[in-house]
Amino acid sequence: MRVQIEPFNAIATGVFVLAILHTFAAARFARLAHQVQHRHDDKAQAHGRPASPSLGAEALHFLGEVEVVFGLWAVVLLAATTAYAGWDAARHYVSDTVNYTEPMFVVVVMALASTRPVIGFAESALRRVAAVGGATPAAWWMSILTIGPLLGSFITEPAAMTICALLLARQFFDLHPSTPLKYATLGVLFVNVSIGGTLTQFAAPPVLMVARPWGWDIPFMLANFGWRSVTAIAVSTALYFVVFRKEFRGLAARSPVPDVEQPDDESAGAALLPVPPWVVAVHVAFMAWTVFNAHAPALFVGGFLFFLGFARATAPYQSRIELKTPLLVGFFLAGLVIHGGLQGWWIAPLLSRLPETPLFLGATALTAFNDNALITYLATLVPNLGEELKLAVVQGAMVGGGLTVIANAPNPAGQALLGRFFGGTITPIGLMAGALLPTVIAAMVFRLL
Fold first, then answer.
1. N or C, which end of the chain is more exposed by having fewer CB within 10 Å?
2. Distance of alpha carbon 46 from the chain centroid
3. 47 to each of 40, 44, 50, how far by Cα in Å?
């Protein structure tokens, strides 16, 4: 009936489905790009020409970049909107209706969290915890995957994901574990970060959407979410450790690849100086400013510009600030919110008609194919939703936040930072397989305890 009233609903959802299918096919595009480039190089060699990039391979490689998928299909959506309702309507939706605060925040907080002083500070803190287990790869793995996600309740989930991913890259993925263990690690990381931000009401985007309308505060979050999240994180991580314990013993004999830190200022020389405590303190202060003003883009973007100036002034202590990855992740999220904003026509009625347990399962399933913050936001628009139903929909959205890259806002950051350890492309099926067991454990903890 809603499609009959407004046929564009079907068009918008059709484009969104195609974008989702594209994310699942990204790995195939990447493989095709390598094949096309290889054939192009062989042909050039046979004719005595120097090797050169293939235009077809570059186009396929572009289509294989997961971070550009939703932005690419947003262009298609914009064209469809213009053809259906005119340019003014399309411009109004993209410019005035869609809220880009979260994508901008993720760009800034990722760039800050990945700086040398912040990573060094987090690494030194977790080293003390890992030292209890002998600082083995297993000890580092356990420490990062249990403590790191819980930091998301205070420094926001995107920042926690960035720090956890970078530390896992240094202390674990550089040891070249097996593919099953890689995907298991990625799955438990995504699930743990998704539920690890529930100790407070201001750090996890899905909770943030409902905290003010429904009057949830820190005591409420600790009583209904926090202790369950800690339990689920501990159980999932420990269970995967038991499953892969033999491989962890083998990894203990390997040495991680040392990181090559490029100086932020070429004139600073190749050797970076040890980071003094006052520089770490200033970085932490910029992080705190960004988190505190997470809903005020003018303030946190302005603060980031001041930070770039500070980083330049303290170049001897800074490694090169990488902006490409945060910008790609922000582009991914911006495209996702453009598409997601047009899916309420079918998600909201679905949420309003489900009883408690089916609502929990429905929210978990919907989250796999949509940002979980959108699911909880649409739940706030459902009138007369009972307290048990409110808990069920938010719990489902948090539990399902690790099943796919698009399920939770921090996931694209983890994929962008760790994708190089998966041959450049993380397969959706592999990620879902790795996240399935932690998701089931979290669901049982939230619904049965």
1. N
2. 44
3. 11, 5, 9
- What is the average pLDDT across 310-320? 90
Residue where one domain finishes, among candidates 82, 97, 112 = 97
Both 259 and 216 in one domain: the answer is yes
DSSP 203: S
Q: Quick check: 153 and 198 in contact, CB under 8 A?
A: yes
Q: How far apart are alpha carbons 370 and 156 in whole angstroms?
A: 20
CA dihedral 31, 34, 38, 40 (to 10 degrees): 110
86 & 136 share domain: no
Main-chain phi, psi angles of 6, to 5 degrees:
-135, 90
pLDDT in tens, 3-59: 888 999 999 999 999 998 888 888 788 888 888 888 888 888 887 788 788 888 888
pLDDT digits (tens, 9 = 90+) for 87-130: 999 999 999 999 898 889 989 988 998 888 998 888 888 989 99
Summarize the confidence of residues 431-447 as an average pLDDT. 96
Q: Which domain holds residue 427?
A: 102-448
174 and 64 housed in the same domain? no
Amino acid identity, position 27: A
429 half-sphere exposure, CB direction, 13 A CA radius: 6
Rg, C-alpha atoms of the chain = 22
Residues 50 and 132 in one domain: no
Last residue of a domain, one of 68, 97, 126: 97
**Mean pLDDT calculated for residue range 425-440:** 93
Task: Check whether residue 111 and residue 60 sit in a common domain.
Answer: no
Q: In terms of domains, do 222 and 342 share one?
A: yes
On the CB side of 87, how many CA atoms lie within 13 Å of its CA? 0
